[in-house]
């Protein structure tokens, strides 16, 4: 074999790299798909009531209040889940809330908020939720309560008049409907 027939350094390097690439690309695609599926699975599971209940049943009365509300459903109406109200529906906002919510998991594991001291922390936590609802014009409420689910003509006169004037008064759903799903907290 003459020197001109010998593969060059670049050709030898490419031949050596082709073997791992042929295997690495499918493995890489598989890993990416598995990571995407795992991420989506975590998002779905963490939006289910069972996930929320797993902590809240042990540290507060939120679950019992929700179960006694009209939002829990009675078997004939579609129930609103915890995530329907407390987790935004758009991806970026949802990710922000989920990241911020990891502090709640920390407090539960660290025992800083317990069934014994929950009520003293509750006003600040409730105010934070109300501020979020006010800041985004009660997007979570409006996600479900629209169209046929919010027919002004079917509402009693007082409710219809209040709902027609809500924007001109600079109010949003939570201004009147605090305490609808969880007990109303009086902040002093």
UniProtKB/TrEMBL annotation:
InterPro entries xrefs: Cytochrome_c-type_ET (IPR051174), Multihaem_cyt_sf (IPR036280), NapC/NirT/NrfH (IPR024717), NapC/NirT_cyt_c_N (IPR005126), NapC/NirT_cytc_sf (IPR038266)
Gene3D superfamilies: Di-heme elbow motif domain
Entry membrane topology: Single-pass membrane protein
Designated name of the protein: Cytochrome c-type protein
Principal localisation: membrane
SUPFAM superfamilies the record matches: Multiheme cytochromes
Spans through the membrane: 21-45
Keyword Cell inner membrane: no
Cellular compartment(s): Cell membrane
Keywords: Cell membrane, Electron transport, Heme, Iron, Membrane, Metal-binding, Transmembrane, Transmembrane helix, Transport
Pfam families tied to this protein: Cytochrom_NNT (PF03264)
Residue intervals of the NapC/NirT cytochrome c N-terminal domain: 26-184
Family designation: Belongs to the NapC/NirT/NrfH family.
């Amino acid at each position: 074999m003459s020197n001109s027939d010998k593969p060059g350094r670049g050709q030898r390097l490419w031949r050596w790299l082709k073997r791992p690439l042929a295997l690495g690309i499918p493995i890489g695609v598989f890993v990416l798909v598995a990571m995407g599926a795992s991420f989506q699975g975590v998002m779905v599971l963490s939006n289910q009531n069972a996930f929320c209940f797993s902590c809240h049943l042990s540290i507060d009365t939120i679950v019992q209040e929700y179960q006694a509300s009209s939002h829990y459903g009675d078997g004939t109406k579609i129930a609103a889940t915890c995530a329907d109200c407390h987790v935004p529906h758009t991806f970026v906002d949802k990710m922000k809330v989920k990241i911020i919510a990891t502090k709640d998991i920390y407090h539960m594991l660290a025992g800083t908020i317990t069934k014994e001291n929950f009520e003293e922390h509750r006003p600040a936590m409730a105010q934070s939720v109300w501020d979020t609802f006010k800041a985004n014009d009660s997007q979570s409420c409006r996600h479900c309560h629209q169209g046929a689910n919010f027919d002004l003509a079917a509402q009693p006169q007082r409710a219809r008049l209040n709902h027609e004037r809500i924007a001109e008064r600079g109010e949003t759903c939570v201004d009147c409907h605090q305490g609808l799903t969880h007990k109303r907290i009086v902040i002093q």
